Amino acid sequence: MAASDKMSGQGVREFLWNQMPVIALVVLCLIAFILSSRFLSPININNVLMQGAVMTVIAIGMTYVIICGGFDLSVGSVVALSGCITAMVMLEFGIVAGVIAGVAVGAAVGLLNGLIVTKLDVNPFIATLGTMVMFRGATFLITGGRPVVGDEGLPQLFLGFATERVFGIPYLVLFPILVFVIFHWILHRTAYGIRIFATGGNTEAAFLAGINVVKVRTSAYVWCGTLAGVGGVMLCSRLQSGQPTAGVFYELTAIAAVVLGGASLFGGEGKLYKSVVGVFIMVVLANALNLANVHSYWQQVAVGVVIVAAAAADRLRHR
Amino acid sequence: MTGTPLAAAVEISKRFTGTQAIDAVSFDIRAGEVHALIGENGAGKSTLMKILGGVYRADGGEIRVDGTPVQYGSPAEALEAGVVVIPQEMRVVPAQSVAENVLLGQVPVRRRLGILPEIDRAQLRKRAAALIGRLNLNVSVDTPVGALSYAERQLVMIARALGRNARVLVLDEPTASLETREVERLFDVIDNLKREGVGLVYVSHRLDEVERIADRVTVLRDGRKVGEGARGELSQQDMIRLMTGRDLEHDYEEGGSRNPGETLVRDDTLHVRERETVGLAGLLGSGTTDMLLRLYGADAKRGKAGAFDSPAAAIASGIGLVPGERGLGLIMGLTVRENIVLPNLDRLKTTVGLDRKAIDRLVSELIETVDIRPPDPDKPVRELSGGNQQKVIFARWLAGHANVLLLDEPTHGIDVGAKAQIHALMDKFADEGGGIVFASSEMVEVMSVSDSVVAVRDGEVVAWLTRDGDYTERALRDALGG
């Protein structure tokens, strides 16, 4: 009797630990609501969702790379490059070509990252630090440092993606849900998904189990780059232009979100939905501090504290 | 050889969850002697050494230094008491010089203008030179340690211990990775240290070395001390008998009634047939692991051609590997189910995902067949015992209908009951037509499980013994060179 009580007590504690990101988000929302009743106003909710939308898509890709045992610092630069290329191509060749170009450039950078890491055996941190700087520079080069808007602006249909709504919800917010469903299925329900976890958990053991670990690791970077490219297209629509300065610090926010969601930076562990929860912890935190009129400098300090605290709590739990 | 021992373990016991690692073992080291500690894998040697070296705390008994009971709970405190363990893996900083490595953690400091602390380079080089001079190590103290051979690094480690006034040195398999010439140099060093009054513990599998340099020998088996003798009192045969609990010329007829069939796989060193178990016997570091990896296509670096160019290709041809380090066989964070299906995913795919019903059926069947406990497919494998983890890898290859299994030290570090189960699984696999190649450094295990025994030295096959031919333990030991 006593033993079974203890077991269920342990089970509950384990469950609570596992759901910590979700609990943290709920508590955060409650606090935000207590601080300001404006938090639940339709305008503010819309705001939060819009702010989280692009980052959700990027964080999904980042989760793939991190679970696979890698790291990608270049996503912020890819967002800018993809956004600018999307705008430039769109102005010349139309919407479809622009969107394809933006996503393709992200995929290409992802492939480059993957090959540098797997074929040249460069540490992912350094490899993607290099491409991050490289493609930020390239973005400034092709745009001359100026926003890309054209003489008459980008096509209305494209801008409508960020402004139009179905059932009162912007397309920009609905789209990440679709991305999430697809990538959740791939990661948690397919053979390829198991291979990503296995490769990240123990590359050598995965290799000995017959997995082509070079291919799997490279593909994770390609997904990450591709989704950063998609994020760039989304942001381009939202900003109604290609902005060469866009996406600065996005890589850090995305990594922080994935870590807040409990994925291990050593690879092999993580859940996609929790990364999305991590994104919204970051967004809601910033939003709540805004509503409470906390100075933006203090906001940065607070976000930093939360990241360190979450990572430390996770280490304590594993001890 | 009289007087108070420098250090002594008195009736030391240590339990780990589920196993009594050592049970009331007494062991002492006197000044100026070499005391050898021998036993099969899992006999408790490393546990005893780790207790002496302060890594583990004993559950019972006491450690005495110079006759006084001490309580130390960290390697640093053991060091303080003068006991240093030289492990097999060299703890050196490759980028730093010999001098810096020898005096690591006790770099001489001088004060410029009486206040500013600064490393005293001249002192550092002088003291390091004196220490390595005692060991006949003829390298410049400015050489980066990364440029030294394994044997030289080992001497750097010993010099470091001497620099801390170690009086008891524990050498763990010190010759496992040395060439003959280097072994001779190490023996000279050991002789010098003896003369200086240092006490040495010599842990080794190599009985001829033990016979040659040990002043005393203590034999462990299953966590107990089963024998002790001064120089010349125990022959090598006596040692083997004590270590294994069996006589040397045991008859190994138990499993040898199968008729081998067609050759299933071969490369230029190994081959195995249907219904055949081939045992690779070799001392630690003899290269049996590399031979298995090469056959499996996992060792592309070597010039020698393996049968496959990747593990994926080997698996596709029905070969499965059970690696020596369990960490190489399993993904510890994944569940039992995921680890079992990992190499078999392609056959369990549907157009949009995985056939989860088929997976569940397969996994629960296999959990029962190989008897994994607890029988929970959703448990992360890191929470299973060593024996059950080994069964998961087995199940993985049974799931893939492998017809050849390559096993590297399959029973290393698992308890007696699980060991018997693994042997039974191997027997069944071969009975049902499979071929097995397995490597073990336990000679008795190789002899009792295999149909053919291959003696391996330095990565080369030196003898291939079969049951219808010259199949005796003596022949095998001769082939291995003791």
Question: How would you describe this protein?
Answer:
The complex is a heterodimer of chains A (319) and B (482). Chain A is 77% helix and 1% strand. With 319 residues, chain A is an all-alpha fold. Chain A starts with a helix and ends with a helix. The model of chain A is unreliable at 1-6 (pLDDT under 50). Chain B has 482 residues and is of the alpha/beta class. In chain B, the strands form 5 sheets. A 6-stranded mixed beta sheet of chain B has the order 6-9-10-3-11-12, with helices on both faces. The two termini of chain B are 29 Å apart. In chain B, 45% of the residues are buried. The chains are: A mainly alpha (319), B alpha/beta (482). Chain A binds chain B through residues 185, 189-191, 194-195, 197-198, 201-202, 204-212, 264, 268-269, and chain B through 296, 298, 310-312, 314-316, 321, 323, 327-334, 338, 341-343, 345-346, 348-349, 352-354, 396.
Biggest chain-to-chain interface with counts: A-B, 22 and 30 residues
Poorly predicted runs of chain B: 248-253
- The count of DSSP E runs of length 2 or more, i.e. the number of strands of chain A, is 2
* Helix content, binned percent of chain A: over 70%
Give, in spatial order, the strands making up the sheet with the most strands of chain B. Answer: 6-9-10-3-11-12
User: Mean pLDDT of chain B, rounded to whole units?
Assistant: 86
What do the pLDDT scores of chain A average to? 92
Protein structure class of chain B = alpha/beta
Largest sheet of chain A: 2 strands, antiparallel
Label this structure with key terms.
heterodimer, A: 319 residues, mainly alpha, two-stranded antiparallel sheet, 77% helix, disordered N terminus, B: 482 residues, alpha/beta, 6-stranded mixed beta sheet, 17 helices, 20 strands, globular
Describe the secondary structure blueprint for this structure.
The complex is a heterodimer of chains A (319) and B (482).
Chain A: H1 2-18, H2 20-35, H3 42-67, H4 75-93, H5 95-118, H6 124-143, H7 156-163, E1 165-166, E2 169-170, H8 171-189, H9 191-201, H10 203-208, H11 213-239, H12 250-260, H13 272-291, H14 296-318
Antiparallel strand pairs in A: 1-2
Chain B: E1 7-16, E2 19-29, E3 34-38, H1 45-52, E4 60-65, E5 68-70, H2 75-80, E6 83-86, H3 98-102, E7 109-112, E8 116-119, H4 121-134, H5 150-163, E9 168-172, H6 180-195, E10 199-203, H7 207-213, E11 216-221, E12 224-230, H8 236-244, E13 263-266, E14 271-273, E15 276-281, H9 288-295, H10 311-316, E16 319-322, H11 326-329, H12 336-341, H13 356-370, H14 386-399, E17 404-408, H15 416-431, E18 435-440, H16 443-449, E19 452-457, E20 460-466, H17 473-480
Parallel strand pairs in B: 3-10, 3-11, 6-9, 9-10, 15-18, 15-19, 16-17, 17-18
Antiparallel strand pairs in B: 1-2, 1-4, 4-5, 7-8, 11-12, 13-14, 19-20
Helix pairs in contact in B: 4-5, 13-14, 14-15
